[in-house]
Amino acid sequence: MALGFGKKKASGNRPAAGSERIEFIPDAGACLVTTHVRDGVGRVKFMVREKSQVPADNGWRIFSEFDTEEYMNQGDPFVIMAFNDVCAIEPALIGIYDFPVGSDLAIEREGGIRIIDVTSGREIPVENFYVPPQFRA
């Protein structure tokens, strides 16, 4: 998927008035997110990690549950957001931060949040998740 990193900058990626931006992951970089995720139209559903296109790009591409093929083919559905800001929208993303390029994941919400490897259909074990330095024992 060749995406134009740098085409649009998200207007909705700033913290709300009176709130502070939270840094879950130091120097987490930026990612591409569909406007459905940014605008709260749908919850995060799919996450794909590609090779980064520029140094600030961490390679993650984040999609909502409502991102149909038709929607994805209408213009440019992506905006750039700080990865930490996307983690504020969906905290489950913190755990996948350091997964390798080529990762193709989905969030399943029935019976609690689980991260699924789309390729194998297997649930990712909790011990595989990234833990930010400030939360490590």
SSE inventory with pairings:
Blueprint lengths: L29 E5 H4 L5 E6 L7 E8 L4 H4 L5 E5 H7 L14 E5 L5 E4 L20
Gyration radius, in Å: 14 Å
H-E string:
EHEEHEHEE
Poorly predicted spans: 1-18
Strand content: 15-25%
- Helical residues, percent: 10-25%
Structural class category = alpha+beta
Distance between the termini: 38 Å
Largest sheet: 6 strands, mixed
Give the number of DSSP strands: 6
Strand order of the largest sheet: 4-1-3-2-5-6
**What count of helical segments does DSSP give?**
3
Describe the 3D structure.
The chain is of the alpha+beta class and 137 residues long. The chain has helices spanning 35-38, 69-72, 83-89, and strands at 30-34, 44-49, 57-64, 78-82, 104-108, 114-117. The protein has a six-stranded mixed beta sheet with strand order 4-1-3-2-5-6. It is globular, with a radius of gyration of 14 Å.
Descriptive terms for the model:
137 residues; alpha+beta; 6-stranded mixed β-sheet; 6 strands; globular; disordered N terminus
Structure summarized in a few sentences:
The protein is an alpha+beta fold.
